[in-house]
Amino acid sequence: MRFSDEFLKELMDRNDIEEVVSEYVNLGRTSGSNRFGLCPFHSEKTPSFSVNRDKQIFYCFGCHKGGDVINFIMSIENLSFPEAVEFLAKRVNMEMPADSGDKEDGRRKRMAALNRAAALYFYKCLCRDPSGPAAGYMEKRKIRPETAVHFGLGYAPDSWDGLRNAMREKGFHDSEMYAAGLVRKGKNGSYYDTFRGRLMFPVIDVRGTVIGFSGRVLGDGEPKYMNSPETLLYNKRKNLYALNFARQSKKGYILLCEGNVDVVSLHQAGFDSAVATLGTALTPEQARLLSRYTSEIVLAYDNDGAGIRASQRAIGILEQLQVQVRVLQLQGAKDPDEYIQKFGAASFENRIHASEDQMDYQLQRLLDRCDLRQDDQKIAFVRQAASLVASQPGAVEREVYAMRVASLTGIKQEIIMKAVEQTRRRKENGLRRQKEKETHPARAIQPRNRDLQYTDPRSAAAEEGLIRLLSLDAALEKEAEFPAPEEFSSPVLQHIYTILLEEARDSDQTGSGVRSALLSPDEMEILAGILQKPGSLQNARQAVADYTRVIREQKKIREGTDDLRALAQEMKDKKGYQP
Fold first, then answer.
1. Residue ranges of the alpha helices (H) in 395-440?
2. Which is nearest to 539 in space by CA: 494, 495, 473?
3. Does the N terminus or the C terminus of the chain have fewer Cβ atoms within 10 A?
């Protein structure tokens, strides 16, 4: 273990999980020792994410993600275990141990240093060529020098190995540049620069680390934007361009754009809450990330068919969260950058204030595709509109929008409301059947990760019971006869059980922080799920005996089955045996 038990226990003691989680999740309703909020790891409208202060764990009853405070920070901040420990240590002003790093942590720090050096190289290339293609493009797009400095913009020269040679001089190896996506490997095994002849946009996370790059072609080439590949630091699904700036904005909303140049232009014009996705349509991970920093999102996508489709897809993702969504309508320009250049920042501000609520926007898009003078198209419009209205969580919202549909079609509001409620009931029944399917007794005990599925559910249920009892009272290990870990049917439960037994036998090692250092995130998730189930120490010794009996009975059955299979295989191998 890279961190001492004492250090991890102090870290956990000083970082109360309820206080840490409350910095990311609005915890409201209390049930017993659990506090509930909307899960930050999956989209939901009804809170199923719980934090248990007594057990110092979190668990989502919807997506089944769980663990301790270190696991929470690892997931919410997309950090490795050592980085999450360092994050929490800084939070409470704890000094990190000098020898706490591991190999992956070292690689991540090395890659961050390489990316930073590459960003500086690109910036210097831009400054050295004030009349070059990148400077000319910036002048054409009216990007001012101070804006370029603010965003750290740069230029990747149109050469095969300019960056590679510069980084090698700084002591970085080809393998490191390849892992960071800065160079590619040729057919003859040589390396060449990934980004060539492009305006460079460093992608910086909310902690100020350069995690990757986005390069805009200077001309009509393809692809228009080239982004870093997935690396130890960079995951395009979980990051947004310029969120490091936008999260500090006082605007009260976040502008979601398609391109980096739009973002730069908007920030330059005073709209410092603009962000952009990185070479992908909006993802659920990005949506949840945005919801941590704002309760209102304005979609400012391009004013073309692709932009309209992107807006509708984004609405479908964002409406699963507790955020208000509005859609910016740009008339006379294809994108935010062009609109500001033509009409100015004040006019753009007015367009933001006049932006449509997402329901109004979607109803209008439906209306654009239908001719309500035709009966069949009117019926199709009502069916689709009823489905949209039915998705609204509140009865008031449903009635208001049903009234809107009635006024558009001339159909009585009562009939529209009936169609809405019928659609809503169908959706609810479908969700209920799906939930019943997922919680079927044969499936309910299975871990979410298919690679960790239990082959013997009856034994696994008893194994979980022993783990729960040990977690409630480690002293039971000395008072009752527990089975050996080798008797468990599930390898993952066997590993968790082994760690808990070691904790029980060594009082100095007890603590969730030690567990999270020894267990994988998937194992911590399973442990959190086990601990969330009801448990009692009443008649604990008898419970241990009962669980042990079941585990041993199932072990005999499995061994007997294995003997029968071996006998069948032996007979099959004999000459003349016909199965």
1. 395-409, 413-438
2. 473
3. C
The number of beta carbons lying within 10 Å of the beta carbon of residue 318 is: 24
Tell me which residue has tokens 């920030």: 267
Q: Which of 239, 264, 241, 251 lies closest to 149, judged by CA? A: 264
Sign for the CA dihedral angle at 242, 244, 246, 252 comes to positive
Contact 198, 217 (CB under 8 A): yes
Task: Supply 247's token pair.
Answer: 């999260």
- Measured CA to CA in angstroms, residue 504 lies from 21, 92, 394, 494, 561 at distances of 28, 29, 50, 15, 34
Q: What share of the chain is helix, strand, coil (3-state, %, to 5)?
A: 55, 10, 35
Paired residues of 193 in beta bridges: 183
Whole-angstrom distance, CA of residue 436 vs CA of residue 557: 30
**Preceding omega of 447 cis (within 30 degrees of 0):** no
Partner residues linked to 49 by β-bridges: 37, 60
Q: Which two tokens stand for residue 432?
A: 């209920």
| Strands (E) located in 463-536 | none
What span, in angstroms and rounded, lies between the C-alpha atoms of 90 and 99? 16
Tokens of 337: 């950058």
Report field, pTM of the whole predicted structure over 0.85: no
Q: Going from the first residue of the chain to its last (579 residues), give the mean pLDDT of each consecutive group of 10, the final group possibly shorter.
A: 80 92 89 87 86 91 91 88 90 81 78 97 94 93 95 95 97 96 92 96 93 92 90 91 94 93 96 92 90 91 86 87 88 91 94 88 86 89 89 84 90 91 84 55 61 81 90 83 91 91 68 73 89 78 90 86 61 52
How many angstroms separate the Cα of 231 from the Cα of each of 102, 139, 492, 549, 574?
18, 33, 28, 48, 53
Place of tokens 């995951």: 235
How deeply is 160 buried, as exposed, middle or buried, from its count of CB atoms within 10 A (0-12, 13-18, 19+)?
A: middle
CB 479 within 8 A of CB 492: no
Phi–psi pair at 326, nearest 5 degrees: -125, 155
Element (H, E) at 215: strand 210-217
Which residues have C-beta within 8 Å of that of residue 369, sequence separation ≥ 6? Answer: none
Of 126, 147, 138, 119, the C-alpha closest to 203 is 119
**Strand 191-193 versus strand 183-185 pairing type:** antiparallel
